[in-house]
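Subject: design request, 385 residues
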């Protein structure tokens, strides 16, 4: 492997980091739970970011408990519902709901109104205004777990992770078997930098709905953050089996395989991820922000410094990348990958002697890693010529 190919492989690895950071949060709706959906549930699931195609599948499988009016269908369209969902709601199997008193029906109408207005604001990325609409809806119906979940989602959009977690926990208290609330709580904890808290919530979501592909993807991410590469790989593979077009799972699997030294497998998964979501490669700045945020919360996580260094290197900020790789090594002196990548960056800067020292350190730490061995032997020959 020559230097150009080596750096290309490292850049591909760098994109894997970006991809999994960008994918996190693109959760799909869970597989069907059997009760028919009411009009507020459909709106609330949209407000939680569930894609129209997945929500249409839920409507087809579970049916609905209301008669959808044209005004209601328009409200769905206004909050981002695609034609596939609108068609599903129009033809869905109807189960007649219990009759409501005039007072309760009027209150429910107000809840639906504020929820729809909040979801429209969320679509426009006016998250603080959407939050207020959801809070108004909750004042009218404080025991509705779906409203708490919707509020949690928009709080997460504002990176208010603690407040989002409070809302998801309330939803779980009201509906303990709410797999989506457990999943979203786990996701919020993972984004906050708390994989220890995230893992049990994601496992609970999977216990409730074993075929919930996004929960397997995000559990893989949380396990990866903990350093459990084998566990992460198993979860990513399960997610891909359940949902072959899950770009996040392919990206995460690629990153985990890279961590195990399987460069060919990593690149293949990275290519699948980019094929499924070509725009993820443009989210580099967002990935850097995410890593810096995580490091403010937990500055002693070596892998986070490594990943931030990889993203900075991809942007061309070699000084920033070198600083992050050195920090990763200071925190974890036996971090072979960090030594190897630091060596390659130093070589790009023209400091071949320092580069050779880092590659030698990587080789001594992980002599069975063929990529590291080839890079070290190549540079050793060139320096000694």
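Subject: RE: design request

Done. Sequence follows.
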């Amino acid at each position: 492997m020559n230097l150009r190919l080596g750096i290309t492989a490292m850049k591909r690895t760098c994109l894997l980091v970006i991809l999994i950071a960008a994918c996190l949060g693109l959760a799909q709706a869970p597989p069907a739970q059997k009760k028919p959906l009411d009009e507020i549930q459909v709106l609330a699931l949209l407000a939680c970011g569930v894609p129209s195609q997945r929500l249409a599948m839920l409507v087809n499988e579970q049916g609905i408990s209301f008669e959808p009016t044209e005004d209601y269908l328009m409200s769905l369209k206004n909050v981002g519902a695609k034609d596939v969902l609108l068609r599903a709601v129009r033809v869905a199997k109807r189960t007649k709901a219990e009759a409501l008193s005039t007072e309760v029906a009027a209150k429910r109408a107000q809840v639906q109104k504020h929820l729809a207005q909040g979801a429209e604001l969320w679509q426009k990325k006016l998250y603080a205004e959407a939050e207020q609409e959801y809070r108004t809806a909750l004042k009218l119906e404080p025991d509705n777990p779906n409203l708490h979940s919707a509020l949690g989602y928009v709080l997460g959009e504002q990176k208010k992770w603690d407040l989002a977690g409070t809302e998801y926990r309330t939803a779980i208290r009201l509906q303990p078997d709410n797999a989506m609330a457990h999943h979203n709580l786990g996701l919020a904890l993972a984004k906050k930098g708390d994989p220890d808290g995230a893992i049990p919530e994601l496992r609970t979501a999977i216990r409730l709905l074993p075929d919930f592909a996004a929960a397997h993807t995000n559990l893989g991410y949380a396990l990866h953050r903990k350093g459990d590469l084998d566990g992460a790989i198993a979860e990513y593979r399960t997610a891909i089996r359940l949902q072959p077009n899950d770009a996040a799972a392919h990206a995460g699997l690629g990153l985990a395989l890279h961590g195990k030294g399987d460069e060919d497998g990593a690149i293949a998964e990275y290519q699948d991820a980019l094929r499924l979501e070509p725009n993820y490669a443009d989210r580099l700045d967002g990935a850097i922000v995410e890593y810096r945020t995580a490091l403010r919360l937990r500055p002693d996580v070596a892998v986070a410094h490594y990943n931030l260094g990889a993203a900075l290197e991809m942007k061309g900020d070699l000084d920033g990348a070198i600083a992050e790789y050195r920090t990763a090594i200071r925190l974890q002196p036996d971090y072979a990958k960090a030594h190897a990548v630091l060596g390659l960056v130093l070589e790009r800067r023209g400091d071949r002697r320092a580069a050779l020292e880092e590659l030698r350190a990587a080789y001594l730490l992980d002599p069975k890693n063929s990529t590291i061995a080839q890079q070290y032997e190549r540079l050793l020959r060139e320096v000694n010529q």
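Residues 1-33 have pLDDT under 50 and may be disordered.
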